[in-house]
Amino acid sequence: MPPEQRRAAIVEASIPLLERHGEALTTRMVAEAAGVAEGTIFRVFDSLDDLISATISEALSADRLAKRLADTPLTGGIEAQTRTAIELIEQYLHSVHTMFIAAHGAAKHTAPHAAQCARTELEARTAELDAWMTDHFAPYRDIITIPLDAFATLLRTFAVGHASRFVASSLTLDDLARLALHGALRKDSACSSD
Question: For residue 25, what are the CA distances in angstroms to 33, 47, 52, 141?
Answer without folding.
Answer: 12, 12, 9, 45
